[in-house]
Amino acid sequence: xxxxxxxxxxxxxxxxxxxxxxxxxxxxxxxxxxxxxxxxxxxxxxxxxxxxxxxxxxxxxxxxxxxxxxxxxxxxxxxxxxxxxxxxxxxxxxxxxxxxxxxxxxxxxxxxxxxxxxxxxxxxxxxxxxxxxxxxxxxxxxxxxxxxxxxxxxxxxxxxxxxxxxxxxxxxxxxxxxxxxxxxxxxxxxxxxxxxxxxxxxxxxxxxxxxxxxxxxxxxxxxxxxxxxxxxxxxxxxxxxxxxxxxxxxxxxxxxxxxxxxxxxx
Length: 266
Prior knowledge:
five-stranded antiparallel sheet, alpha+beta, 5 helices, Alpha-Beta Plaits
């Protein structure tokens, strides 16, 4: 079983009421009408806004401010874009989609301005479970999930990226103070897409202060890869090769099927 994960940013939180209405009233029903028979789960998480004093810190890690959405399926479903009737004036600009078809194959992200949605196909269950897998969710005091995706710079091979991540970086991440859970997913390559992502990782902390202590204030000593293009941790350029957000343990919305208000999985 696989799932498609989408991490989406909106250019201004002033547009949140409009985008929430579009998702709930138009986009989710249209998606279910087209691919519902192939789906086992269709769920979405609102991003958790960081405290104001952490805004500058989270920007250094490519913070996306709106949602993570997951579509689970046992077999590939028909690929689709957004139907014409789902568009509204300004939609593409709000979420950072290229307005020109040619741009869709050359856009690589930017630190300011529109931020293209992250879209990854990956296994439904984590490829690696580094920490905390022996515990049930109820065994954690509280859960703030930091989800991030990264892509390898041009010219770096898949094997070189994996050697650094698995043999060096993941072992050092485990030394973060206050880290309670750490899993990672290998992204299933999407042919013909120059913005392919390499991995999606998920790290848990009790709250934003615990994240700040582990990531900003007192991080472990990290070893950058020889091919790093960005000098500081996480060694990928925010909004170009690295994007992240924070979510809670249960989806904000479960569109398909109707499991109820609480559904948890890793």
